[in-house]
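Hi F.,

I've been meaning to write this up properly since the lab meeting, where we talked about keeping a consistent format for the predictions we share between groups. The idea is simple: the sequence comes first, exactly as it goes in, then the structure tokens exactly as they come out, then a line or two of notes. No screenshots and no reformatting. I'm using this chain as the first example so we have something concrete to point to.
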Amino acid sequence: MILNGNCPTGPITQKWDKHRQEMKLVNPANKRKFKVLVVGTGLAGGAAAATLGELGYNVEAFCYQDSARRAHSIAAQGGINAAKNYPNDGDSIFRLFYDTVKGGDFRAREADVYRLATVSNNIIDQCVAQGVPFARDYAGYLDNRSFGGAQVSRTFYARGQTGQQLLIGAYQALSRQVKAGSVKLKTRREMLDLVVVDGEAKGITCRNLVTGEIESFWGDAVVLCTGGYVNVFYLSTNAMGCSVTAGWKAAKKGAFFANPCYTQIHPTCIPQSGDHQSKLTLMSESLRNDGRCWVPKYPSFGNLAPRDIASRAAKEQCDDGRGVGPGARGVYLDFAASINRLGEDKIRERYGNLFDMYEKITDENAYKVPMRIYPAPHYSMGGLWVDYNCMSNIPGLFVLGEANFSVHGANRLGASALMQGLADGYFVIPYTIANYLARITPGKITTDHPEFKASAEAAKGNLDRLLNVNGKKSVSEFHRELGKIMWENVGMARSDASLKDALKRIPELRDEFWNNVKVTGSGSEVNQQLENAWRVADFLEFSELMTRDALHREESCGGHFRVEHQTEDGEAMRNDADFCYAAAWEFKGVDKAPELHKEPLTFENVELAVRSYK
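Output, unedited:
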């Protein structure tokens, strides 16, 4: 099937405005008749729930944490991009659009990226109005710094804790709507299934993580804001609870999963210190403004080449025997020159919390000795396929933020994740969801429908199956083994042989899991072993699709690096003739080959060219 992204016609500068004028609206008095379910309360979910509640819709927002404020968006450090051009250094909406398309190695939908660049400025105004404490210069104006893949300073930041401050802003807006009664917050719930009735998304099935009860919730539309899937590698910078479960359950109900092989390996993370570790820690890309790293591959961009390029450069140094630290899997990030030039107080002002975090983990003072860094899995550019309205191929199922595939192509530029999450939540979904809701009857399908009962029974059956295996190996052992397979074979460098090896070993490990996993406790209590088990079970299925996608894509682009497809000097070699499309996969069953659907990518405003930062 050839997919249609439903992009508006006309000049790219006018598409979003034209689309907003042409979309249907819901009368203010009618908004309260509709109920919208928002799954996830990070920047995309929190912003969406708050904004939809403010508009008058009835919203139910779900998170597996004990507070919406604990969403993983809180861990973002470096900043958020916007085309304000405050430094007067040549930035513009078009330049942000161009940098993002090029940074993604020409594998994103142009119209979506231009809309993102357009609303980026609104985000900053919104967040300042909320009181987000962005850094300011001596005169009191908002300050900017640089990030990878750009030659302008367009990144707004709050020290090294930008995600936390932005999330507090969204959480305040969300809390206001909770108090007003337009949003009902459902904490400690994890989505285990999507309920589809007559081909449309009409609700979700959750497990109450405190009582173990399986609960059903109906809605006129479902908005998934559930983040990414790089915990498939076991070790990553993501929180331990981050998983593919919500997205994968939607995929198993018919939603297409697009470009799953596009995963980002972040170049600046604290190196692994041993096999005992269960996660890795991010060190913000912003540190590369003042920290001197390996000899830059691209002098015109200095230390700030895009992440996929910088990560491969670090790996090359270590593979050549120049690595430092335990296991020689690290390179130095040295601040001595910047401290001499600016003074320690200025570096502390910019990055103090990051240096503190580094010292707590490594017991090394980075003001006195160089930081050690090494690439680590960090972000998913792939995700559920959506059209220009952020709606999946299942009507009524909208997907926002990292959970969708739309704007980052094969590589996300630094400080663009926060931009996408807030753009989707504050400024896109309020318009596009109305266009869908205006065409349906509110409250037509509720939990009385037999599909809800069937979904709940299936979810409970899966949990009982996990509890009844009673094998010998822990969930963590299986997750660690899967992560090793994925990192070694589907990680920073992929080959035909490595991918075929992974496709052989993943089903074997999955079969062993269902015959030998040990899940203690019961289903009627708080049981983190059981929570981890269903997440790993989903990773064991999803990882096969991710590997198939990587094997299918016979090219190197962005974070997807096939060793067979590179230039003589080690650059990624795209194949535009055969692979200039989004690959959207339809689930056909476990142990069955998925069906490929394609959305051709056209480039009318940016020349499709070899990505070069020389």
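Notes:
The chain has a mean pLDDT of 95.
Residues 558 and 614 are 16 Å apart (CA to CA).

If this format works for you, I'll send the rest the same way.

G.
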